[in-house]
Amino acid sequence: MRFRLTPRDDSFFELFASTGKILVEATTVLTEVIGSDHARREVLAQRMEEIEHRGDEAAHAVMRRVNSSFVTPFDREDIYQLTSRLDDCLDLMQAAVDLMVLYRVGQLPDAVGDLVAVLTRQAELTADAMPRLRSLADLTDYWVEINRLENQADQFHRRLLAKLFDGSYDAIEIMKQKEIIETLEEAADAFEHVAHTVETIAVKES
Predict the structure, then answer these.
(1) Rounded distance, CA 56 to CA 69, Å?
(2) CA 19 to each of CA 14, 61, 156, 179: distance values in angstroms, whole numbers, following the listed order
(3) Which of 7, 26, 96, 127 would bridge 20 by S-S if both were Cys, CB 3.0 to 4.6 A apart?
(4) Residue 33: how many other CB atoms lie within 10 Å
(5) How is residue 71 annotated by DSSP?
């Protein structure tokens, strides 16, 4: 770690840890959404929207802290990027839930559950990693595993697309479900982008 002559503002670590917990909460709701009927999905969508608002508030708090802190725990541009990419994860999961409600989709293919399970694990690993930004120690396993999970999400994504185009669905249903599936896959990518940012920070600060 680099030696500092002035004290740094460590409140960022609490804010990032809070965001990690919010991501886990979002995946819990997302998991329930995919197994629910339309009426229940509407209720859960409202809950997801509330979670997303809390995530936005945490992101704004980080930005305010960056602008008011003389010394930050690591480079300001890295803090901005990490905050933005964490927010992307939440926004994409919330968007997927919105699409399920707006499109009034019925039962989703089983592999959607597998894809959401990947997101859940990514969120758990991210939540576990955020408090460790304080020391930036023992994080290699985190970004390696996130990368492995993102590759797994890509596999589920391909299987889901193959299922959609096997002749079992009409054209309108294909378009609806394809957009939902691709939004979930983008969320998996977003978690990988978070991990890449953490890796960059760790390398810079080592």
Answers:
(1) 20
(2) 9, 11, 26, 26
(3) 127
(4) 23
(5) S
Q: What is the pLDDT of residues 29-79, one digit of tens each?
A: 999 999 999 999 999 999 999 999 999 999 999 999 888 877 788 889 999
Q: Concatenate the DSSP letters of all residues of 119-151 into one string.
A: HHHHHHHHHHHGGGGGTT-S-HHHHHHHHHHHH
The pLDDT tens digits of the residues spanning 98-154 come to 999 999 998 899 899 999 999 999 999 999 999 999 888 889 999 999 999 999 999
Burial label for 82, CB within 10 Å (0-12, 13-18, 19+), is: buried
pTM score over 0.90: yes
Report the C-alpha gap between 80 and 192 in whole angstroms: 16
Q: Is 123 within 8 Å of 194 (Cβ atoms)? A: no
